[in-house]
Amino acid sequence: MALSLRSAVALFLLGLVNVSASVLYVSVNSTNPVPPFTDWTTAATNIQDAVDAANPNDLVLVSNGVYAAGGRQISTADVTNRLVITNSITVQSVSGPAVTLIQGYRVSVLTNLPNAVRCVLLASNAVLSGFTLTNGSAGTGNYDNGGGLSAYRSSAVLSNCVIVGNFAAGAGGGAFGGKLINCVLSGNLAEGGGAASSASLLNCQVISNTANWAGGMLNGTATNCLLAGNRATNYGGASGFAELVNCTVVSNSLDDGSSGNGGGSYYDTVLNCIIYGNTAPNGSNYYSSTISYSCSVPVPAGVGNIAGPPIFVAPGDFHQQSNSPCINAGDNADISVSTDLDGRPRLVGGTVDLGACEFQGTTRYVSLLSTNPIAPYSDWAYAATNIQAAVDAATNGDMVLVMDGVYQTGSAGVVIPPLPVGGGFVTESNRIVALKAVTIQSVNGADTTFIQGYQVPGTTFGTNAIRCAYLTNGASLSGFTLIGGATRTGGNGGGVFCFSNATVINCVVSNNTAGNSGGGAYGGVLSNCTLIQNFSTNGSGGGAAFGALSACTLIGNSASKGGGAAFGTLNNCLLFSNLAFTFGGGSYSNFLSSCIITSNSANAGGGVALSILDNCTLAGNSATNAGGGEWISTMNDCILTGNLASYGGGASGGTLNNCTIISNSASDAGGGVDLSPMYVNNCIVYYNTAPSLSNWYLGTLNYCCTTPLPGSGVGNFTNAPLFVNLAGGDFHLQTNSPCINSGNNTYVTVTNDLDGHSRIVGGSVDVGAYEFQHPTSVISYAWLQQYGLPTDGSADFIDSDGNGMNNWQKWIAGLNPTNAASILMMLAPSKTASGLTISWESVSSRAYYVQRATDLLAQAAFSSIQSNIQGQAGTTSVTDTNANGKGPYFYRVQVQQ
Questions:
Q1: Is residue 56 reached through a cis peptide bond, with omega within 30 degrees of 0 on the bond before it?
Q2: What is the DSSP letter of 783?
Q3: Closest by alpha carbon to 449, among 478, 422, 417?
Q4: Please, are residues 276 and 285 in contact by the beta-carbon 8 Å criterion?
Q5: Tens of pLDDT along 573-598?
Q6: What is the mean pLDDT of the chain?
Q7: Chain Cα centroid distance, residue 97
Q8: Pairing state between β 890-895 and 149-151
Q9: How far apart are alpha carbons 343 and 203 in whole angstroms?
């Protein structure tokens, strides 16, 4: 039996848990490159330096420029690489591939020289996005693949890149291995696979590459890709031994005088493709490929193939005309993506098209002033006079284009379950019913184009009520004002009722009423919309219910629960002056991100109730009872200021992480926060007012800046937070704020603060909604100030009291840096009937774990025997019930948080 080799100080400080990702910066013009390159003023001048300084999951952000310096080998047999990424980080350009280049080195065509330089080598889970990779080369030998990119794991990703003018003596002139997404590969050269080899390509363009075998790609897979103008000498002008799904393979060739096979495809597996207009001595379009549901000549032997021609829009434009036989001619079984090469819906009309681009439909026209409405309304001269007529004439994928006016006629009915009436279902009327995946769009926007429903005078409901619009999955409504719509009693969505994948874009939804939920809108995806003065009588979500809202404004809506919105998701939205008669004036049971919730009111939760909020601001909301800002919600990185309630002016109930709760008031108790159970972590709760306990009332606070010091929780401090401008409402931290580095990373659930900056800078999270971006110390400023130590970093790693532990170690361990007797050390073990009891000096504000080894020379000698051990004031002990033999046993204790 033995204890740790060093019994006096048995604590091993091996780091903190749950450290969030960081952003590192690169600029070729940086004049002050200082590791770890955490802002533009200290940016690295080459990408490799920042990559080397990064930890897994970090982001390396690269400014414009040509990066052509430096190089690294991972094997003496391999060529040098301009950039090597061996851990799971993301390297991303600021402005895209047009202005951000990684340049290798090659000498004309003879690039297989010892001084050749490949552009990039990627390892597992690494991501490179937004660069041009050019002039790279891979030489001879066993490492002669991938002149622009070599990715030796399929999980490596290259996205939104241009790979041009690279060479490989082996395979993959542009790229070898990895997953390429939305990339252009052009003008690359190799022995096999001029553009790519053994790679997975998605939504890529493979154009004008050259090889002896497979001019475009060799092996690998391609989905939604265009392969055009590639050339080979021996076989496969476009591809060989690959899998092609929904690709367009056109105008590829074998060299003149060649006796090779397959101008387009050679020994490939082909599905839902167009292989047309390629040339070769044998098998102009394909040779010995397995082909199904594709367009080519001669007609391939597999199932579902057609002869074409595909009828493209124009030479060089490989989109299909409306009479192309390739439309709806594919097989849906192997569709794995939702968009085509253009980024538009991959599936329009129920069956996938052949080729890389999905035909999106024709246009139908609507004008109130049309004097000659003739179906199918395919010209302004024959425009329909009402929207429904054009929708009825349309097919999936079509657009219905609508001229200015007020559209208030027609009442198409749809059966809407579940609204039982007398044991059956009711039929609800709508100005527009879109039961097809069509886009209905105004010419000049919502200011001049209206769809007006009907509300029964006096009651707003009744059998004559008319909703503005009803949209099925895939339908879209853009640029309208939806006004005056209503449902029957118990109905949902007075302005618009949407299936989950229907979209409403750039619309104003105003003065509509629902008998149940969603006075303005129910379901669907709403973007850049304004929802104003809508009403839900008996349900939830006066403005919207059960929808996904982005960049929307909700003003003056009302409902029983969730005056603004209920049961949905909101991103970058403004909720202003909404009213709930019970809970959640602005929001009830939503997920909200980067929203502003202001001047809303309710009985409980004037701003929000039963919601989850990230990076939001709640200001000036009120509740007659509890929770002026929020009630029983989860909030991360939020500001609560100027809210009012009887209890909990800022917040009542729920969980708050990294929030700033300032200048709220309560008429009874808890001006800042109240109500148990409530958990407030890494928060500033200061300058609030109430007759009793101005800042907090009940609840559990951890690592918070507040006063007085709470009776429960750990890590709290009472120092004033030192805002940049309290009176002016600027709640960013001053350079000497005690809140810097004073939080606990365990409670961090988001990657960015309220400004969108990195949430953790300096190793430990700050307290409050804003992260100070340039800390000079890695230690909690509150802790340093408590013991009279400087916050400029000069004291971080010195031993102030001479007991063998530096100040950083003392802070991690929760010790006193001015008291040499304050130290963690293991005590003498004791043998009991149950096993061996290990004891150590401890503090109550820390958790520990214990590890054991029996052979210190073994690989990974230590293993945990117990974790999450809450420390006790003075001494903590655990018993190792498995330590019953002769040993030896070696133990170590570590701080867990």
A1: no
A2: H
A3: 478
A4: yes
A5: 999 999 999 999 999 999 999 999 99
A6: 90
A7: 21
A8: unpaired
A9: 8
d(CA 140, CA 171) in angstroms, rounded, equals: 11
Tokens for 851, please give them. Answer: 């590890």
State the DSSP H helix or E strand holding residue 406, giving kind and residue range, or none if neither.
strand 405-407
CB 436 within 8 A of CB 422: no
How is residue 557 written in tokens? Answer: 């809506």
- Residue 534 backbone dihedrals phi, psi, to 5 degrees: -95, 160
The b/e string for 694-704 (b: 16+ C-beta within 10 A; e otherwise) is: bbbbbbbbbbb
Handedness of CA 832, 837, 842, 844 (dihedral sign): negative
Please tell me the chain's helix, strand, coil percentages from 3-state DSSP, rounded to the nearest 5.
5, 40, 55
- Model confidence at 73, pLDDT cuts 50, 70, 90, reads confident
Written as six digits, the tokens of 238 are 């476009």
pLDDT per residue as tens digits for the range 13-30: 222 222 347 899 999 999
- Integer CA distances (angstroms), 563 to 455, 523, 533, 590, 884, in order: 20, 16, 10, 12, 65
Per the structure block, which two tokens stand in for 806? 């530096």
Contact call for residues 562 and 584 (beta carbons, < 8 A): yes
E strand spans, 29-126: 59-62, 65-67, 80-85, 90-93, 100-103, 117-122
Neighbour tally for 738: CB within 10 Å:
24
355-371 burial, b if ≥16 CB within 10 A, otherwise e? bbbbbbbebbbbbeebe
For the chain, how big is the Rg over CA atoms in Å? 33
Q: Where are the beta strands (DSSP E) in 209-322?
A: 210-213, 217-218, 221-223, 226-228, 231-235, 239-240, 243-245, 248-250, 253-254, 265-266, 269-271, 274-276, 286-287, 290-292, 295-296, 312-314, 317-320
The count of C-alpha atoms lying within 13 angstroms of the C-alpha of 420, restricted to the half-sphere facing its C-beta, is 2
pLDDT of residue 7: 23
How many CB atoms lie under 10 A from the CB of residue 423?
5
Q: How far is CA 598 from the centre of its chain?
A: 26
Q: How many CB atoms lie within 10 A of CB 485?
A: 33
Q: Give me the architecture of the 1-18+804-897 domain, per CATH.
A: Sandwich (2.60)
Tokens 């200290």 — which residue?
42
Instruction: Name the token pair of 344.
Output: 């538009």
Give the whole-angstrom CA distance, residue 828 versus residue 352. Answer: 73
Q: Which two tokens stand for residue 138?
A: 């891979």
> What does the block give as tokens for 1?
């039996």
Q: Which residues contact 564 (CB under 8 A, 6 or more apart)?
A: 531, 541, 542, 543, 544, 554, 557, 575, 578, 585, 586, 587, 597, 600
**How many residues can be counted in the chain?**
897
One-letter amino acid of 675 = L
Tokens of 485: 């719509």
Per domain, the residue ranges of the chain are 1-18+804-897, 389-494+503-516, 651-785
